[in-house]
Design brief:
The complex is a heterodimer of chains A (109) and B (113).
Chain A: E1 4-6, E2 11-14, E3 19-25, E4 32-38, E5 44-50, E6 55-57, E7 60-65, E8 70-75, E9 84-91, E10 97-99, E11 103-108
Parallel strand pairs in A: 2-11
Antiparallel strand pairs in A: 1-3, 3-8, 4-5, 4-9, 6-7, 7-8, 9-10, 9-11
Chain B: E1 4-6, E2 10-13, E3 19-21, E4 23-25, E5 31-38, E6 42-49, E7 56-57, E8 64-70, E9 73-78, E10 87-94, E11 103-104, E12 108-112
Parallel strand pairs in B: 2-12
Antiparallel strand pairs in B: 1-4, 3-9, 5-6, 5-10, 6-7, 8-9, 10-11, 10-12
The chains are: A mainly beta (109), B mainly beta (113).
Chain lengths: 109, 113
Amino acid sequence: RKEVEQDPGPFNVPEGATVAFNCTYSNSASQSFFWYRQDCRKEPKLLMSVYSSGNEDGRFTAQLNRASQYISLLIRDSKLSDSATYLCVVLYNNNDMRFGAGTRLTVKP
Amino acid sequence: DVKVTQSSRYLVKRTGEKVFLECVQDMDHENMFWYRQDPGLGLRLIYFSYDVKMKEKGDIPEGYSVSREKKERFSLILESASTNQTSMYLCASRQQGDNEKLFFGSGTQLSVL
């Protein structure tokens, strides 16, 4: 079983739709959680951290459920520019970051 | 803004060749990392370094070695390239103590024929 698992998608949604991605992790000792975004043929970039109480950044909302060991990312009012692969990242200790394989999102006009 | 520069965007090598992938960061970060990214597998850590001359094995170090002689430069070495090392290689750096942000280079797509 992979340490960090994501639905690979692809998710194909129309502009304006709300879409949610889930990610599960296997190590209950995980410390910190993040969502990174990776555009086609580009490097990953930090989208947002995920805090225990949940957090929002504009149209993006991240949630953490430690008991069930999953995190989620919700995107409201999808834009064409949101098309990318979203990577779930779990930090186990100061230098052990585990990446999910990514969920691909395509937003269509 | 932090810049992480990888020396080559695309590289084609033959089986058995020794390959050097270079990475330079300009923000005085202590921590540097080498990942490879393969479809369906995500990013896997090969090696990382806390500081100059220090290195730690990641999840898949076999067939690779690294060198960190200067703080800004972290080199990945494939001693004898094999076809299963064909992959996208991503270098990253991070400030010690700042767990949030990992800065990546733009990647090197290596093909071993």
